[in-house]
Amino acid sequence: LEEGGQLKLAYAWVGSRRSNLVTFNLALVFAKETEPYQPRRLLVVDLNVLHNGVVIATVEENRILQRGVLRPDLRKINNIQREISRYDRLCAKKGEHCKMATELKSRVWRLLRHFEDEMAKKLVRLAVQYKATIVVDVPLDETMRKLKEGRYSPGKKIYLNIGRLRRRIRELAEWYGAPYLEERLYSTVCPRCGGKMRELSNRKVKCLCGFEAQRDLVPILWAQRRFSE
Questions:
Q1: Is the CB of residue 136 less than 8 Å from the CB of residue 180?
Q2: pLDDT of residue 208 exceeding 70
């Protein structure tokens, strides 16, 4: 309301929980008319698996004005996951431990949701500040599916769900009038010659042409190449 939003829709429904508690739920939908600004820069967002962090960079023609990596509180989440594993083992023997395991899993979900909300707000504020188009590099659905179905560490699979963060950025960009674009920006294709690069240790990549860089930097360099587009 403070930002000029108008109430457009209201949803109401009755639900129930496992405790047989009946709940009445209400969701309000607001919208506002916002005139998009004329962008002068790019705010590049590389949505990695969340434990590797969300890489962001502001690009202006051939310059990178700022760059950083933002992550959820991995130490806190990992500590909670260890507690979950302990209670899950006890739950198999004694049922009273199952409730604690469920509560801890909900706490992890809330921590990640809070990170996603704060992350999206920070990105859109930066885009508005720099008058930038938000360019989001999203992993291929096939890549994420293979990770979810493969032997990826169970403790890290919770970091694979980046869909909500993606939607949140797009929704806030629309709310504040920040231009938004999803574009495939390569991380293993050389931005210098276009050749396929091999992966080294510590998330580094190297091309036969001699180019070498941190893998997280490569999508930003591709965004520089496409700036005029």
A1: yes
A2: yes
